[in-house]
UniProtKB/TrEMBL annotation:
This is Dipeptide epimerase. Its cofactor is Mg(2+). It comes from Alkalimonas collagenimarina. CDD domains: L-Ala-DL-Glu_epimerase (cd03319). Keywords: Isomerase, Magnesium, Metal-binding. Binds 1 Mg(2+) ion per subunit. It is an enzyme of class 5 (isomerase). It comes from the Bacteria. Residues 141-239 form the Mandelate racemase/muconate lactonizing enzyme C-terminal domain. Pfam families: MR_MLE_C, MR_MLE_N.
C-alpha cells in the first residue's frame, strides 16, 4: 500500500455553547482535514485544529507544513513501513505538531486498514469502550453551576471545570459547583496556565480546607514555569497534572525526574501524533505515572484516533478528556467510533473506521 497523494480540506462545526478557558473563547470548530490516498484505493483520515495559544499552530502553518514539507517526503512511501513513515514525518520539520499529528493519524488509519483490523488492535488491543468527562467553560458562577447540573443530568460523571481567571472568583466558582453536584460527579480543574504558583497553592489550600475534594488540577501555572509547577505539586494534596508544559517524550522524562507533576495529559496535537504519544505512555508506565488522554477542539476524526490509543494503553491512560465531539452541535463523521454523551465505543471496522465527513470542503 503506497502513498500516492495527500489532499487537504476544512471541516466546520458549531459548538453547542461557546468554549471558554483562561486562554480563549471559541464558538465553532474549524479544522484542517488530511486525506492520504494510496495505490490500493484506501484513504486514511486525519485532522488538525489550529490551537495557536497552546501549540502555536494556525491554519496557514498547518496547511503549508503539510503541502510543502511533509507531503513531498511521503509520496511513494509504503504504509507497511510504519516506523520509517512516522520517523520521516517527525524528522522532516521542527515543531508543527498539529500538522504532524494529522498526517500521522491518517498513516496509522491506513496501517490498520492494511491489516483489516481496528486501530486499537494494532496498538495492542483492549476493551473498546471509554467514558469521557465534559468541560464546563469558565463563566459567571450561576451559569457554571447550571452547566454542571445539566452535564450531570446528561450522564457525565466527571466534570472538567475551567478556571484560571480571578483567583477569588475561581474559588467561589469551584465551591458552588462542588456543592451543587457533590456525590453525583467528580470534579477536575483546568486553570489553563491562568494562576501564578502562589495563587494556585492559595486557591487549592482554601478549597482543600473547605472540604472540596478535587480529582486533580490541570496546568495551574504558565507552560514554561516548571519550577512553579513543582512548587504547587510539592505543596498541595490535590494531584497536579501537566498539560501545556509537556509536549515531547523528552519533556515528560525531565518533568518526571523533577517530580514537578503527578499526572501527564497526553494530546496527539502536542505530541505530533500517535508515535510519540505511545512513547510518552510507555515512559509513564515505566515510571509508574498515570496519564490522561486529552484533546483540543477537535471533531471525531482525530478524537477517534485518541480513543483507539487510549483503549490500547488503558493500563497507564486512566483518565479521559475526549469531549471534543460532545461539545459539537453535530458529529460530521460517519464512522466506527460512537460518541454518545459520556460513553464512547468502537466497533470492529478496520482502521479508524471513518467512511465520510459531512460538510468537508476540499482545498484546491
Ligand atoms: C476540549 C478539552 N476538554 C480541553 O479542555 N482541551 C484543552 C484546551 C483546548 C483548546 O483551547 O482548544 C485543555 O486545555 O485541556
Ligand atoms: Mg488542559
Amino acid at each position: 500500500m503506497k502513498i500516492t497523494d495527500i489532499r487537504l480540506g476544512m471541516v466546520k462545526v458549531p459548538l453547542k455553547t461557546p468554549f471558554k478557558t483562561a486562554l480563549r473563547t471559541v464558538n465553532e470548530i474549524e479544522d484542517v482535514i488530511v486525506m492520504i490516498e494510496t495505490d490500493t484505493g484506501h484513504i486514511g483520515y486525519g485532522e488538525a485544529p489550529a490551537t495557536a495559544v497552546i501549540t502555536g499552530d494556525i491554519h496557514g502553518s498547518i496547511i503549508e507544513a503539510i503541502r510543502t514539507v511533509i507531503k513531498p517526503k511521503l509520496i511513494g512511501l509504503d504504509i507497511s513501513d510504519l516506523n520509517h513513515v512516522t520517523r520521516t514525518i517527525q524528522n522532516c520539520i521542527m515543531k508543527n505538531y498539529s500538522a504532524k499529528a494529522a498526517v500521522e493519524i491518517a498513516v496509522y488509519d491506513l496501517f490498520a486498514q492494511l491489516y483489516k483490523a481496528p486501530l486499537y488492535k494494532m496498538l495492542g488491543g483492549g476493551v473498546p469502550k471509554l467514558t469521557t468527562d465534559l468541560t464546563i467553560s469558565v463563566d459567571y458562577i450561576d451559569k457554571m453551576v447550571a452547566d454542571s447540573l445539566d452535564a450531570v443530568d446528561r450522564g457525565f460523571e466527571t466534570l472538567k471545570v475551567k478556571v484560571g481567571k480571578d483567583i477569588g472568583v475561581d474559588i467561589e466558582r469551584v465551591k458552588a459547583i462542588y456543592a451543587a453536584v457533590e456525590g453525583r460527579a467528580l470534579i477536575r480543574l483546568d486553570a489553563n496556565q491562568g494562576w501564578t504558583a502562589k495563587e494556585a497553592v492559595y486557591a487549592l489550600h482554601k478549597l482543600e480546607d473547605a472540604g472540596v475534594r478535587l480529582e486533580l488540577v490541570e496546568q495551574p501555572v504558565k507552560a514554561l514555569d516548571i519550577d512553579g509547577l513543582k512548587y504547587v505539586t510539592d505543596r498541595v494534596h490535590t494531584p497536579v497534572m501537566a498539560d501545556e508544559t509537556t509536549f515531547s517524550p523528552r519533556e515528560v522524562i525531565d518533568l518526571i525526574k523533577m517530580r514537578a507533576a503527578d499526572i501527564i495529559n497526553i494530546k496527539l496535537m502536542k505530541t505530533g501524533g500517535i508515535s510519540n504519544a505511545i512513547k510518552i505512555a510507555d515512559i509513564c508506565s515505566f515510571y509508574d505515572m498515570q496519564c490522561m488522554i486529552g484533546c483540543m477542539l477537535e471533531t471525531s476524526v482525530s478524537v477517534s484516533a485518541a480513543v483507539h490509543l487510549a483503549v490500547a494503553k488503558s493500563d497507564v491512560i486512566t483518565k479521559v478528556d475526549l469531549d471534543g465531539p460532545s461539545l459539537c452541535a453535530f458529529d460530521p463523521v460517519v464512522g466506527s467510533v460512537n460518541f454518545d454523551g459520556a460513553d464512547i465505543s468502537i466497533n470492529d471496522a478496520p482502521g479508524l473506521g471513518i467512511q465520510s465527513i459531512k460538510g468537508l470542503v476540499m482545498l484546491p
